[in-house]
Amino acid sequence: MEEKKFKVYLKEKQELIDSALDSLLSREDIFPMILHRAMRYSVLAPGKRIRPILCLAACMAVGGKEEDALAPACALEMIHAYSLIHDDLPAMDDDDLRRGRPTLHRAFNEGTAILAGDALLTLAFEVVAVAKRLTDRQVRQIITELAIGAGHRGMVGGQQADLNAEGKTITPEELKYIHSHKTGALLVASVLCGAIIGDAGPKQMVHLKKYGQANGLAFQIKDDLLDIEGKSAKLGKSTGQDKKAEKATYPSIWGIEASREKLKEATATAFALLESFGEEAEPLREIARFIGEREA
Amino acid sequence: MEEKKFKVYLKEKQELIDSALDSLLSREDIFPMILHRAMRYSVLAPGKRIRPILCLAACMAVGGKEEDALAPACALEMIHAYSLIHDDLPAMDDDDLRRGRPTLHRAFNEGTAILAGDALLTLAFEVVAVAKRLTDRQVRQIITELAIGAGHRGMVGGQQADLNAEGKTITPEELKYIHSHKTGALLVASVLCGAIIGDAGPKQMVHLKKYGQANGLAFQIKDDLLDIEGKSAKLGKSTGQDKKAEKATYPSIWGIEASREKLKEATATAFALLESFGEEAEPLREIARFIGEREA
After folding, report:
1. Domains in chain B: how many in total?
2. How many CB pairs lie under 8 A apart between chains A and B?
3. What ipTM was reported for this prediction?
4. Is the pLDDT of residue B249 over 70?
5. Is the CB of residue A253 less than 8 Å from the CB of residue A175?
6. CA distance B54 to B50
7. Which residues form the domain of A213?
């Protein structure tokens, strides 16, 4: 796929997902309207929608139907949005800016931010459980992967390790643990959910899982590099935050040059893992390229 | 069932649930041990285990097997524990004491409390999804009920409405909304999950849902009364908290005597709804009695 064609693909899928998220959050019958508004404020904020697109693309890569993957894709974005909300809280990263706008607890208040995060995490599981296009068996498998990826052995575990590490010197192994859990686990779950929906075979599952892991590593190295080199306006969040918080990052441990090298390696690994896949996996390949080269 | 026999029943079920929760949280391989400890601190704190016991009892009442209901019962307690953790946070109720011990954010720290709550909510869904004794169809139905009961149309919606109402004068209708959602919704889900596991018929479902609602109302009126009349030592949390926070409660709106009257009515309604059930529903009847008469 040429770069221009992929940009069109990305935009098309982002719109597809945003429109699905919009309808999933359209109910006007919620009594505490502030909660409804807070949930929408966070989930519908402009974003790359990497996780849902990974889910759609993985489903397609194994011959599944994109529309079958749409509900779980939205669930993944809800989990991602909830994690950002809670991560931004004063007791965590204490961030003021997210996706180009005030963080939820700044725009609303802290209590509402905690609850909107809780509500989005819960809604994610509901959205999967009631998805008409999924079999009972798929629902069960997807919820298992989502919970493993998002929970204490996945994303939340990584956030906790990150919280513990603030202001401390940590080893490269500890840093890898943090990132592979904090960011990587949900990226892996995104790919696995798509694979489940497309009824992937066991071998495909293994390759796609490893592809997700390589992507996760690339994603975080790039994130760390962008925090140093990126522009706040493009990123939609403050840069230099990691240094300010004395957070360990790949560049702070490996140096900038070595980090760039490892980023390239991770992207190459992701590519290699897709070798046995055909043209249907082209979006997955492009996503790997995009993750390593993005500017925001 | 005589009172003494019911006390034995309660204690037996509490031990059954505590032991199941203990094994579900026994993994020693969690890298951020503090997260593991925080989750255990909250879930395994002494408690009445009303929600899981309701789940077991509802399952039995429709002829199901208790052991089939054990995993979802634990999930309900995890959701309850998470809601207490987040509700106690400084940005919410700002409580120092819970179940006779410092609240989680006091015993650990605020960031860890937020994450432990998140992790418990996520684990609850995982525990149901991987429960070997449940069919795929039951898993799907249970997760739907849990999410509806716990999410923005249920418990979290009620917590948000409660947060919004602080320091304001609210109508009896608004108070009923808050409580039927904040407390009632998860109690209803507890009963419904048990009913799903026991393969209840549609009529039984309707009766059990209404039984859960009546129980929820009774539970909250009693809670409000205990906050005024109860002893801090027995409750394991500070009393007079509602007045301190200028929270609307049933006694503050209806007066103490009328609240006691409404409590009796709700308990009677719960009993009436079980009329078509046989002896297997005896625990459900005793739980309704217990909710109205408990001293903590």
Report:
1. 1
2. 160
3. 0.95
4. yes
5. yes
6. 6
7. 3-293
Q: With beta carbons less than 8 A apart as the criterion, state whether A277 and A195 touch.
A: no
Query: Do A86 and B130 count as a contact with CB atoms less than 8 A apart?
Result: no
Verify whether the Cβ–Cβ distance A151 to B115 is below 8 Å: no
Q: What does the block give as tokens for B296?
A: 């903590």
Q: What is the pLDDT of residues B133-160, one digit of tens each?
A: 999 999 999 999 999 999 999 999 999 9
Rg, chain A, Cα only: 18
Closest partner residue to B163 (CB to CB) among A27, A31, A112 is A112
Distance from CA of A93 to the nearest CA of B (A): 9
Strand partners, A101: A98
Predicted confidence (pLDDT) at residue A245 exceeds the cutoff of 80: no
Give contacts of A115 with chain B, Cβ < 8 Å. 86, 156, 159-160, 163
Q: What is the DSSP string of A246-277?
A: T---HHHHH-HHHHHHHHHHHHHHHHHHTTTS
Which residue matches tokens 């991560």?
A: A87
Looking up residue B125, the CATH number of its domain turns out to be 1.10.600.10
Distance of CA A51 to the CA centre of its chain: 4
| Mutation for B interface: A25, A105, A106, A115, most B CBs within 10 A | A115
Q: Are β-strands B101-102 and B97-98 bridged in parallel, bridged antiparallel, or unpaired? A: antiparallel
Per residue in A191-210, pLDDT (tens digit) is 999 999 999 999 999 999 99
Q: Which chain B residue has the Cα nearest residue A108? A: B164
Neighbours of B289 (CB within 10 A): 16
Cα nearest neighbour of A36 on chain B: B152
pLDDT of residue A28: 61
Q: Using a CB-CB distance cutoff of 8 angstroms, which residues of chain A are in contact with residue B167?
A: none
Query: B163: which chain A residues are within 8 Å (Cβ-Cβ)?
Result: 111-112, 115
Altogether, the residues listed in chain B come to a count of 296
Average pLDDT over every residue of A56-69: 98
**pTM of the predicted protein model:** 0.95
Average model confidence (pLDDT) for chain A?
92
What is the reported pLDDT for B239?
66
Please report which confidence band the pLDDT of residue B2 belongs to, taking 50, 70 and 90 as the band edges.
confident
Q: Which residue of B has its CA nearest to A162?
A: B32
Q: Check CB contact under 8 Å for A140 and B119.
A: no
Per residue in B66-114, pLDDT (tens digit) is 999 999 999 999 999 999 999 999 999 999 998 889 999 999 999 999 9
Q: Which residue of B has its CA nearest to A114?
A: B86
- For residue B248, is pLDDT > 80? no
Q: What is the pLDDT of residue A112?
A: 97
Residue A29 is predicted with a pLDDT of: 58
Residue B97, SS3 per DSSP: strand
Give the Cα separation of A111 and A115 in Å (integer). Answer: 6
Place of tokens 């037996």: B12
Helix (H) or strand (E) holding B124: helix B110-129
Q: How many CA atoms are closer than 13 Å to the CA of A234, on its beta-carbon side?
A: 9
Helix ranges (H only) for chain A are: 3-24, 33-43, 50-61, 70-88, 104-107, 110-129, 136-150, 155-165, 172-179, 185-197, 202-229, 232-235, 241-244, 250-254, 256-273, 282-293
